[in-house]
Specification:
There is one protein chain. The chain is mainly β. The chain folds into 2 domains: 76 residues, Lipase, subunit A; 65 residues, Lipase, subunit A, CATH 2.10.80.10. Helix content is 9%, strand content 31%. The protein contains 1 helix and 13 strands. The strands form 5 sheets. A 4-stranded mixed beta sheet has the order 4-3-7-6, with no helix packed on it. A 3-stranded antiparallel beta sheet has the order 5-9-8, with no helix packed on it. The chain is elongated, with a radius of gyration of 21 Å.
Length: 163
């Protein structure tokens, strides 16, 4: 009896898991940095697309019966944008660093460093002492520290405020 129960649980686990991914009906069924991806007749949670992964340039979530679902590819991970490539496929692009001209082109937790959005410094990250993120400028070499919680020490490393 115990053996049959264990076998039933193993079969149930295998049915609920496709290639190690959890099944889902909508985005909220997935963890942080995952999307609910529909591939064929199957929907499962998949991590956001990483550097150089394929993506759909103008992808918008499909509003399924129970919530938002992505078709074929997840959106690019943070710090990345889906940039078009002339690869013969109309809407297929590649996840690459987000391009920028000035800091305001990037999300607030990022800065524009030499033409690309980069994450602002947190504990232990390198920084430029005295550098401050200004909306209409570009940073050079490194970002400043995320100013809400960190500051740049004189040795060029981000430190948590209040320590």
């Amino acid at each position: 009896m115990v053996g049959k129960t264990i076998l039933c649980l193993l079969v149930l686990f295998a049915v609920c898991s496709v290639n190690g991914h959890r099944s889902c009906e909508k985005k909220s069924d997935c963890r942080r940095k995952e999307c609910c991806l529909k591939a064929g007749d199957v929907q499962h949670c998949v991590h956001w697309s990483e550097m150089n992964a394929k993506c759909i340039v103008s992808q918008q979530p499909f509003r399924g019966e129970r919530g938002r679902v992505m078709i074929d590819y997840c959106p690019c991970d943070k710090d990345l944008s889906c940039n078009p490539h002339s690869n013969g496929q109309f809407d297929i692009g590649k996840c690459e660093p987000t391009r920028c001209e000035v800091n305001k082109d990037c999300a607030w937790r990022h800065c524009c460093v030499d033409g690309f959005c980069r994450r602002r410094g947190v504990l232990g990250d390198e920084c430029i002492p005295g550098a401050k993120r200004k909306k209409n400028e570009m940073m050079h070499d490194k970002c400043d520290c995320l100013s809400t919680k960190f500051y740049c020490r004189s040795d060029g490393l981000c430190e948590k405020k209040g320590l």
